[in-house]
Design brief:
It is a single chain. This protein is an alpha/beta fold and 409 residues long. It has helices spanning 21-31, 46-59, 77-85, 93-104, 157-172, 192-205, 229-243, 255-266, 280-286, 304-311, 315-321, 326-340, 386-407; strands at 3-8, 36-42, 62-66, 89-91, 119-121, 125-127, 136-140, 149-153, 181-187, 210-215, 220-226, 247-250, 270-274, 295-300, 344-350, 365-371, 374-378. A hairpin with an 8-residue loop joins strand 7 (136-140) and strand 8. The two termini are 51 Å apart. The mean pLDDT is 93.
Length: 409
C-alpha cells in the first residue's frame, strides 16, 4: 500500500512550528506493518495545495492530511478536495450537534464562522473530534479514484492523536501487514560518535535489525526495528551488557524518567537548588506524572538575595567565594537537602552568557551532588547558546545523579 502524508500549514515551513504529527503517525503505521512512501509539508496556498492533492490522488492508496480543517480563512483542505473531485459540501447534522454541545459545555455560543466546520463533502464520512470543534473526514473510493482512501485530520496534535486512535486506526487494521516492533534504548553521558564506536560490534551481531542512532542535547537514543520480538529481546540483552551504566532506560521514557524510577524503587528522594538553569531541572522532573513520590521540591535561587532568603546562605560569604564557584554549588546542594530532608540534592550554578559573570567565562558551570556519603562537584565546560547550555547542564546533573544512585544500591 502506498501511503502519503500531507502536513498543511504555512507555519510548518518556518521556524515557528515543527511537524511532529507525521512522525507520530509514522510510528503508529509501523505498528500496523505499514509505512509512508512520501511525506510533504505545504503552506496555506490554494494553488500549491490543489496541485499536491491531485498528485496524491494519482499516486497513493491512502492519503493522510493534517491541518486546514479549522474555521478561519486559511483553512480549506476539505473544500479543495471537494472541488477537485467535483462534489458539493453539505452540512452534517451530527457534526452540527457536536459543535453546539462543545460550546454549550463551556457556556459559550459558537461564532457563525465555526459552522463551516460542519460541512462535509458528499460521499465522505465525518470523524468525531472529542477534544475540538473540527471533525475529520474519512473518504473511501472518492469519485474516479476507486481503491483510494483519503483521511483528513486536524493539525492540533492532541486532536489528531485522539481521532487516529479512536476512529482511523481501527479502520486500517484489516489492511495491516506484519507489524514492525521497536526496541528503544536511551543512553546518557556518551557522545553520539563514541556510542557509534562502542556499539558497532553489537550492531553487526544483530545486523538483521534496522538500526538508527538519534542524538539531542540531553541524551542519545539507539533504535532497532524488526518483525520478531524475540530478535529485539536478544538485542536488548546483548546491548545491556555492552552499554553497562551508560544505558539509562529501555522502552518509553527519558533520562529524567530513569532517575525518578531509580529513586522510587529505592525509597529515596531528591531536592534541587538551581541558579543558571532557572528551574529547568525541576520543570523536567515535575513534567512526569508521579514525580512527587520522589521529588521533594526545588529552589530557583538566581540572585544573591534569593540564595540568602531561600537557602540561608551568607551574602558576604557568597560575594567572597563567587556565585559561580564550587563552593557556591556545594552550599546550595547541602542547604536544599537539609531544608527539604531529601536523600539527594543537586546544586547548580554557572554562567550561560552572554557576558562574563563574577569573572567566570561563559560556559562555566558547577554541579554539586549532595548525598548520604557527602558532596561531590563536577565542573564540565559547556558549549552552545544560552538555552543549549542550560539543557546540557540539566542533562549532566541528572546523569551524575543517576550513576550515583545506581552505585549506592
Amino acid at each position: 500500500m502506498r501511503i502519503e502524508c500531507i502536513a498543511i500549514g504555512t507555519e510548518l515551513l518556518t521556524t515557528r512550528r515543527i511537524d511532529t504529527n507525521s512522525v507520530w503517525l509514522g510510528e503508529r503505521l509501523a505498528g500496523l506493518g505499514l509505512a509512508f512512501h512520501r511525506k510533504t509539508a505545504v503552506g496555506d496556498n490554494r494553488e500549491d495545495l490543489a496541485g499536491l492533492f491531485r498528485e496524491a490522488l494519482s499516486r497513493s492508496d491512502l492519503i493522510l492530511t493534517t491541518g486546514g480543517l479549522g474555521p478561519t480563512f486559511d483553512d480549506f483542505t476539505k473544500e479543495l478536495f471537494a472541488e477537485i473531485l467535483g462534489v458539493e459540501l453539505v452540512e452534517d447534522a451530527a457534526s452540527r450537534e457536536d459543535l453546539l454541545a462543545f460550546y454549550a459545555a463551556r457556556n459559550r455560543v459558537p461564532p457563525q464562522v465555526n459552522f463551516k466546520q460542519t460541512l462535509i463533502p458528499v460521499g465522505a464520512e465525518p470523524l468525531k473530534n472529542p477534544v475540538g470543534t473540527a471533525p475529520g473526514i474519512w473518504w473511501q473510493d472518492p469519485p474516479d479514484h476507486p481503491g483510494v482512501r483519503v483521511v483528513m485530520m486536524p493539525g492540533v496534535p492532541r486532536e489528531m492523536k485522539r481521532m487516529w486512535e479512536e476512529q482511523v486506526e481501527p479502520r486500517l487494521r484489516p489492511l495491516a501487514g506484519r507489524a514492525v516492533h521497536t526496541l528503544r534504548m536511551v543512553v546518557s553521558g556518551v557522545p553520539e560518535s563514541a556510542l557509534d564506536e562502542q556499539t558497532r560490534a553489537a550492531r553487526e551481531r544483530h545486523a538483521h535489525l534496522d538500526w538508527t542512532i538519534l542524538a539531542n542535547l540531553t541524551q542519545v537514543e539507539l533504535l532497532a526495528r524488526g518483525a520478531h520480538p524475540a530478535d529485539l529481546e536478544a538485542a536488548r540483552r546483548d546491548f545491556e551488557a555492552v552499554l553497562g551504566d551508560d544505558l539509562a532506560c529501555v522502552g518509553e521514557g527519558n533520562l529524567e524518567d530513569a532517575v525518578l524510577d531509580q529513586l522510587r524503587e529505592q525509597g529515596e528522594t531528591l531536592a534541587v537548588a538551581e541558579s543558571m538553569t532557572g528551574g529547568l531541572l525541576a520543570s523536567r522532573l515535575t513534567a512526569i506524572a508521579g514525580a512527587s513520590q520522589s521529588f521533594r521540591g526545588g529552589v530557583t535561587a538566581y540572585t544573591i538575595p534569593a540564595k540568602v532568603a531561600f537557602l540561608g546562605l551568607d551574602a558576604d560569604w557568597l560575594a567572597s567565594v563567587g556565585t559561580v564557584s564550587e563552593a557556591c554549588a556545594t552550599a546550595m546542594a547541602e542547604a536544599v537537602r537539609a531544608r527539604l530532608g531529601a536523600t539527594w540534592a543537586l546544586g547548580i550554578c554557572g554562567n550561560a552568557g552572554p557576558g562574563a559573570e563574577g569573572g567566570a567565562p561563559v560556559g562555566t558551570v558547577f554541579i554539586a551532588l549532595a548525598g548520604p556519603d557527602g558532596t561531590a562537584v563536577r565542573s564540565p565546560k559547556l558549549a552552545g547558546d544560552r538555552a543549549e547550555m542550560q539543557l546540557r547542564c540539566v542533562a549532566q546533573a541528572l546523569d551524575r545523579l543517576r550513576r550515583a544512585v545506581a552505585v549506592s544500591r
